[in-house]
Amino acid sequence: MRMKKIRWGIIGCAGIAKRAVIPGIQQSETGEVAAIASRGLDKARQTAKELNIPTAYGSYEELLADPTIEAVYIPLPNHLHKEWAIRAMEAGKHVLCEKPLAINADEAQEMAEASEKAGVILAEAFMYRYHPRYHTIRDIIQSGEIGELRGIHGTFTFNNAKDRNNIRYKQEWGGGSLYDVGVYPISAARLLLNEEPQAATVHALLSEDHDSVDMMASGILEFNRGVALTFDCGMWAAFRNTLEILGTEGRIEVPSAFVVNQDEGDHFFVYTKDGKREVEVPHLNQYALQADAIGRSIRKGEPLPFPATDAVLNMKVLDACLTSAKERRRVEL
């Protein structure tokens, strides 16, 4: 017997929703996009027409009042995540919220508590974690093929600095590269090491031309046994999104670690004394995989792979990174 599809509603017409998340839900096995809402009906109708969404609403409140909508995706600016996620959960909707979950860990904790109280799912939209290649990478690390783990290096940079009106460059809205892309290598290190860092040190380029948000940041997170994540993230640099896992006997390189580059694909490489080998993994829609994991949790009661508590922990690390960057000091967690 086929599972009844989850009816999703989309709160906002952000680029990430139109470009990736909505098509991902539409391609998933468990979900369908039934409605979209914007602050203006015309914009909602136009987006609905472009993406073949049956219903358009001219306000977020109207979508939340629709009793047929079971889950919502929130791609709003960071400072609006808490308000609309909690309102959605209080309306009985499951929530997939764009990363970072909130502006700080206290907000994230409040959201997690609202989820528990309402008895609904709250998930943070880190789509890359749902791709099976990360299970494969963890298996290789645990197998000992690259020896004892010595460090992880992650990057995520792009250049959009000319767009001065971009929401990423509004400090009060949760702008900056750490919020936007630094969260990826941070969450990846926590995932692969299966532990929380002990301290953070971050140096950042705070641009007065961009409301003093961090346009570039470089940092180190200290983990147990002398292992560290070194990372850099930026919105005013050439594009890269890579991950390297270094061991005593070899290393793993992931050329397109978070956003898959079609030219490079989903594959990654393992280097040991025996040479270089390419690990081929299927090209899968990470956004569809994310929607299906949430769908199975809703319909079948399967545990959510990354519960809201994980998002709270990630926000605690991000809080430390932001404090370190602004105060130019090492911050213990």
Automatic annotation (TrEMBL):
Residues 134-253 form the GFO/IDH/MocA-like oxidoreductase domain. Coiled coil: none annotated. SUPFAM superfamilies: Glyceraldehyde-3-phosphate dehydrogenase-like, C-terminal domain, NAD(P)-binding Rossmann-fold domains. Keywords: Oxidoreductase. It holds the Pfam family GFO_IDH_MocA_C3. One of its GO terms (molecular function) is oxidoreductase activity. Residues 6-124 form the Gfo/Idh/MocA-like oxidoreductase N-terminal domain. Belongs to the Gfo/Idh/MocA family. PANTHER family: OXIDOREDUCTASES (PTHR22604), TRANS-1,2-DIHYDROBENZENE-1,2-DIOL DEHYDROGENASE (PTHR22604:SF105). This is Oxidoreductase. It comes from Neobacillus cucumis.
